[in-house]
Amino acid sequence: MKLFDDIYLVAGAELDSDPGDANTYLIDGGQKLVLIDSGGGYNVEGLYREMGKDGFDKSHIDMIINTHCHFDHTGGNYQIRKDTGCKTAIHETEVEAIEKDTELTVSDLWGHDLTPCPVDRELKGNEELAVGKHILKLVHVPGHSPGSTVITMEQAGKKMVFIGDCLALLNLPGESKSDLRSSLQKLIEMEPDVLLTGHEGPIVTNPKEFLKEHLDIVL
Ligand SMILES: [Zn+2]
To answer: Which CATH superfamily does the domain covering 2-218 fall into?
Structure first.
């Protein structure tokens, strides 16, 4: 489902999957496609079908960038990597979580099986990645989890920011309220125009105000 030019929603609770499934976004860089997160892995075939409806073939997926290691964002990694040969990338502090399914993925807490998946690229959270015509800028925003990372992309003069769950505090292993406070300040200073969330629709109206209110209310 096209959301913006070169940005599509290809899996998530809204798209015929499990109600707890996180959003999977596709960025179209031309010949190269990148997925932001891979959902819970409940319906990877459905994800491919959605891509097909939008005119994309899975063989062009170059990389999955995970916003963080929680199972509902990384559960599709193993199958998609196996099916397409794509690379996976996650912040360096959460590599072990993905490769061994540690308590940081919170899969046990939710009674979910997560298939461990090798990580091909360890992120520092300050890099730029070229995806065809787009440059993705990554920023480490710990708090919701130690390795939470947002991905930003300029589109038609607007700053689009894929935030995963980075605003949420749910009393899960690896959370830090003080880290989240400074991460939120960092996000506000980035002056986003659109926030693409992990479980809800995009926030397009006053995202900076939304973040400031969140900082006041939650922290
Ligand atoms: Zn999460």
So the answer is: Ribonuclease Z/Hydroxyacylglutathione hydrolase-like (3.60.15.10)
